[in-house]
Amino acid sequence: MNLDYNVTQPNNGSTPVMLVTGSAKRIGAAIVKAAHNQGYRVIIHCHQSEQDAQALATQLNHTRANSAVVIVADLAIVEDSSALAEFIEDIMSTFGQLDVLVHNASRFYPSPLGDIHHAQWDELFLTNAKAPLLLSQALLPYLKEQKGCIVSLLDIHAHDKPFSNYIVYNMAKAAHRMMVQSLALEMAPEVRVNGVAPGVNVLPEANSDQAIEAKQQRSIINSIPMRRIGHPDEIAHSVLYLVGAHYVTGEIITVDGGRSLTLAGSLV
Ligand SMILES: NC(=O)c1ccc[n+]([C@@H]2O[C@H](COP(=O)([O-])OP(=O)(O)OC[C@H]3O[C@@H](n4cnc5c(N)ncnc54)[C@H](OP(=O)(O)O)[C@@H]3O)[C@@H](O)[C@H]2O)c1
After folding, report:
1. Is 40 a catalytic residue?
2. The pLDDT of residue 74 is above 60
3. Is residue 124 situated within a structural domain?
4. 242: domain CATH number?
């Protein structure tokens, strides 16, 4: 796929730096690789997947020396102001600047009505809404310095068409979607804030708590006008478009093979 968008050159002419949360694998890793391919230095953030993150950084540094670093942190650090300050210091001490912040990390699992617990609420809202907001706030001074931007990974189910059984996830992503629009207003004109809303671009890992049954996978594919699951690269493509789109802010691009056209607020 052609990912030829011009890298946004920071004011000071240095090589731009992108941080992608939860980017050891899947969509996050695709964004990191695409940005690196366009000349970015990248900060790969991860929590449990440090081995994958280090392997990705090694591969990228092999291509271009000193162009990728890994930072490991549970995003729960946003709950503690001194832990958050330490995390921000770690981020800023890697390359000394930040041009693009991509909110990709997320938890995704069902929370059926009648079985919703505080722990699910806390985890789903932490990863999908609270951490993106508090990280954006903490990194704003550095993004302003670079006239940088933020891109958030949202979901077609964050707006109008809830995913059945995923009430808390839907609510958290809806909050994140409104964050994108609110911050676009608050951070302009220095910093742009946009979002990408995937449909189904990578199925959850089969042996994880996020797994989707084979029958449900088949109905999902049948419901997509493009008749296939998307590719992580197709999300990365839109993220890079938004990074280079200097007059676009508060925008949310849907990348779903037309799936949202067929949704009636249910599983398929
Ligand atoms: N996959 C899709 O088709 C799809 C559809 C709609 C929307 N999206 C959105 O697109 C983004 C990427 O999707 P994905 O499926 O590639 O994501 P994913 O694999 O479900 O999650 C990405 C990463 O989030 C990190 N994460 C989770 N909890 C964390 C925590 N407490 N602290 C730090 N990191 C944490 C994990 O990092 P570690 O592994 O290092 O712990 C994980 O690898 C997500 O925001 C998702 O909601 C994806």
Report:
1. no
2. yes
3. yes
4. 3.40.50.720
